[in-house]
Amino acid sequence: MSADFLVELGTEELPPTALKTLIGAFQEGVIAGLQQQGLEFGEVRPYATPRRLALLVSDLDEQTPVTEQQVWGPPAKIAFDAEGKPTKAATAFAAKNGLSVDQLETANDGKADKLVAQQTTGGQPTCELLGPIVADALAKLPIPKRMRWGAKRTEFVRPAHWLVMLLGDEIVDAEVLGLKANRVSRGHRFQCQHEIVIDTPADYARTLKDSGCVMADLAERRGIIQQQVEAEAEKVKGIAVIDPDLLDEVTALVEWPQALLGNFEKRFLAVPAEALIASMKEHQKYFHVVDAGGGLLPHFITVANIISTDPTQVIDGNERVIRPRLSDAAFFFEADKKHSLASLRDKLKPIVFQAQLGSIYDKTERIAALAVHMAKQLEADTELAQRAGELCKSDLVTLMVGEFDKMQGIAGYYYAHNDGERDEVARAMSEQYLPRFAGDALPETPTGTIIALADRLDTISGIFGIGQQPTGSKDPFALRRASVGVLRLLVEKQLDLDLRELLNQAMDQHTGISAGDERVEQVLTYMLERFRAWYEDAEIPTEVFRAVAAKNLSVPLDIDQRVRAVFQFSQLPQAQALAAANKRVSNILSKSGEPKAALDSGLLKEPAEQTLARALAEKAESVAPLFSAREYTQVLASLADLQEPVDSFFDNVMVMADDPALQANRLALLQQLRDLFLQVADISQLAPAK
Fold it and tell me: Among positive and negative, which fits the CA dihedral 405, 406, 409, 415?
């Protein structure tokens, strides 16, 4: 027998940014609890609004599965004495299993006759288990800080006011968070304040929608909001820009959505669009509207949590709210333009970047010096690099960034243009923060790329230099993200720069830090280790990365080229045999030590070793120009031809010959083989471990 199960917890308004996480975790917790009891069920459908978390479980077993099992006891000859009376062993076994001795059976387990207790487990009514399962799932929700309300001792993310729990059409006899379960829910806080009776679980969503003005399905509500917002934008021949995170948050703020189109004065369009958007989005949760070219239009779309009889009043209220916000942004922009970014640099001196690493001003000095150093190596404009490095943090002390922190860099771009700075310097103000996250865009200009690198390298080298590198999950300066950003910039922008050398240069910029080669190597190892996850995401096996990492290289672009070449090589049919041969050679050489003499062709006695020597000489000559051009894929593809002579050598030649001269010569030949592959990578790492 099965029945649908419904649970709904009614609360005060839940945190909108956490609603998706809460309902997802609640669903997982209840499913885990049901599965732990061995219960079978169908679809589990989540519902969530600002005032409720609910789940509808279809076709849930009404009792736990019944199972029969045999519990073996002591041998019969021990369980009964000579007169056939039960011993202490028999009575103890019976008591342990909640039976009398008369209820025990005797059977043979294949070795001897033993007592057996036939046990029946399961069959417990599901309704008795649902209360604890729901309570446990709620207790495990990811809630950073729980609260109490009234005189109750119970805790939850927000005060809980009602609880619906139905199994079929019956109320579940349970109490959760101090609330007794029933079938009475509540409708929309403003449009339908009366109580709503839920007859059966399957009626839940429809009843709330028809009688309570509540659209309980989160995904349905999200889709309707998106449709409404897009429709409102079309009224002014615009396109609504719908940020997924903002859409999720707005969906979590309303139970009965109505999108409304508002306007603001065109004069505000003189302010950077990013500032207007930040104000509308972050403060008011409005969607902005753009034209076909992406230009901001003087309109916004708000989503009300009520169907108003006079929408114009609601729109008017929102327009009045947004006007002073946009006025503030306009004021900040005009006030900031009165001061050049260069003149603001002195205000950075009192702002501490890190107590041991000086001020933000000091950081800009280091960034500028490191940027010039890189610009010289890349044959870029050193003057632009110097200027951009000096100005890159000046917008931190502007009024605009003080009010809208996400305008950092963007504000600098506009103010640099206002100051008459060259376009590439201005663009570097915002490009320095790219990439912000995995998959984000990279800077487009050489100067922006250089400043983005210099900023990150300064932070990484400084924090490691004072011994505050990340430990475990703690990474307060986001050095992992910064390291990945550096690798992406160097690899994807095809910058042939030596990371070890750059770290040395960055370390030298810091005063009061004892860096040294050991510290630089520590930072280099940490940064290059980020490659491991990078390649895992690209489905490149770890052993491929290890093959290149064994070379202890420090040019990320070169490392990436080698890794991708080794990965392609690993797909060739000859790869495993050559990897195994290289591993064998490595083992032989590690035991024997490096050959003390060069290869003597006059000592090549066996045809197989003569053939291998010729093949190695020919390959060394043919791949030399490819290796110089870093055509590693072609190098390894060419070396794959060595499989046959290598296999023949090991099949027909005794390396550790009795003659010391022959032995040394053959070791020298193997060293040549090893060195030829090691020009690209240690492919012995591709061989499976034994």
Answer: negative
| DSSP line for 102-128 | GG-EEEE-SSSEEEEEEEEE---BTHH
> In this structure, what token pair is assigned to residue 200?
């059966």
How much is the pLDDT for 222?
97
pLDDT in tens, 99-147: 777 777 777 777 777 877 777 777 789 999 999 999 999 999 999 889 9
Architecture of domain 2-63+125-212: 2-Layer Sandwich (3.30)
Tell me the per-residue pLDDT of 217-267, one tens digit each, with 9 for 90 and over: 999 999 999 999 999 999 999 999 999 999 999 999 999 999 999 999 999
Q: How far is CA 59 from CA 4, 65, 163, in A?
A: 5, 14, 21
Cβ-proximal residues to 124 (8 Å cutoff; 6+ apart), any chain: 37, 63, 64
- Residue 44 pLDDT more than 90? yes
Question: Which DSSP letter does residue 359 get?
Answer: E
> What type of residue sits at position 203?
D
Confidence class for position 153, pLDDT limits 50, 70, 90: confident
Q: Which residues pair with 520 in a beta bridge?
A: none
Which residues are 125's β-sheet partners?
A: 63
Residue 526: how many other CB atoms lie within 10 Å: 16
Q: Give phi and psi for 461, each to the nearest 5.
A: -65, -40
pLDDT digits (tens, 9 = 90+) for 443-494: 999 999 999 999 999 999 999 999 888 887 788 889 999 999 999 999 999 9
**Cα 366–Cα 370–Cα 374 angle in degrees, nearest 5:** 165
**Residue recorded with tokens 């291998």:** 612
Q: Which two tokens stand for residue 599?
A: 């290869």
Query: What is the C-alpha to C-alpha distance for residues 522 and 518, in angstroms, rounded to an integer?
Result: 6
Q: What is the pTM of this model?
A: 0.80
Return d(Cα 214, Cα 211) in angstroms, integer: 8
Architecture of domain 560-686: Orthogonal Bundle (1.10)
Q: What is the CATH number of domain 345-539?
A: 1.10.3210
Return the SS3 of 681.
coil
Q: With contact defined as beta carbons under 8 Å apart, do 167 and 62 qualify?
A: yes
Question: Which residues make beta-bridge pairs with 454?
Answer: none
Return the amino acid letter for 45: R
Q: Residue 629 corresponds to which tokens in the numbers above?
A: 């051009």
Residue boundaries of the structural domains of the chain: 2-63+125-212, 67-121, 218-336, 345-539, 560-686
* 74 neighbors 93 (Cβ within 8 angstroms): yes
Q: Which long-range contacts (CB under 8 A, 24 or more apart) does 476-480 make?
A: 479/526, 480/530
Query: What is the dihedral angle through the alpha carbons of 361, 363, 366, 371, rounded to the nearest 10 degrees?
Result: -100
Furthest-apart CA atoms within the chain: distance in Å: 112
